[in-house]
Each structure stands twice: as structure tokens, then as C-alpha cells.
Amino acid sequence: MSKLVAYFSAEAGRTAKAAKALAQKTGADLFEIRPEKPYSPSDLMYMNPLARCNREKIGKKDVPVAEKVKDWDSYDTIYLGFPIWYYGAPNVIQTFCKGYDWTGKQVYLFATSGGSGIGKTQEKLEPYMKGAMIKDARRIGSMEELKSWV
Fold first, then answer.
1. SS3 state of residue 86
2. How many whole angstroms separate alpha carbon 68 and alpha carbon 62?
3. Fewest Cβ atoms closer than 10 Å to its Cβ: which of 10, 88, 122, 144?
4. pLDDT in tens, 36-49
């Protein structure tokens, strides 16, 4: 069995950087979670109440994912990364989670954020990851924190 780092990263790229470093440190495969319809910079302007990111979060909308992980069943450990949006995971993460059988998977959640903590993100994601054994959920604020976590 093997490891997978699956991540969604917004335009700042903090999550992508952390995910790539994590995959390298753990020897895991890497999978980028991308929405079917990519986000534009204006879609991510959270200060605008009409921005796509806000409409999705407030409307609790599913965000279709562009691709599926090949050989999902071969992974026993999943590192799942994302930026924090409104004290939780972006909706594309929930949609991603709904697409797989998590039974028996060990899961480590990691989030990046300019300031928000990870809060109750684990509890909010658990219904979408039935059967998973979530081992840790952590906000990664620096590469040093990532190294000490691994």
C-alpha cells in the first residue's frame, strides 16, 4: 500500500508548496485537486460578497472536480491539504471527498492560511469521509512546522 498527498491550492500557492514538500518528505504520490471550472482571480476575491468563493461557501454548493485519483484503492494513507476558507475547507474539498470510499484510510489533514486556524475543519469534513481514520488535522504556517509535523 502507498501514500498520497492530495491538495487544492488557490492563487497564492501556499498549499501547493506545502503539498509538494510533504510528498517529497514522505515519498507519497501527488495529486492536485482542481475544480472543473478553474478559479479566476476575481472568483477568489473574498472581500467581494458576490465572488464565486463566497457564493459557493454560503450556498453550500458542490464544486465539481476536474479529475479523479487513479488507483485510489492502492492508497492506505492520504494527506489532504487545502487553504482555510471561512474557518473550513473549500467546497471543492467536500466534493472531492464525496467521490471516494474512505473506509480504512488513514488521513492527515493539513491546511494553510494567512491567519485562520484549522478550527473544526476535521469535524466538518468527517461526514464526507465515512470510514476514514483521521489521525491529525493541523494548520501549517511555515516549512519548519511542516518538517516537524512529518
1. coil
2. 15
3. 144
4. 999 888 888 887 88
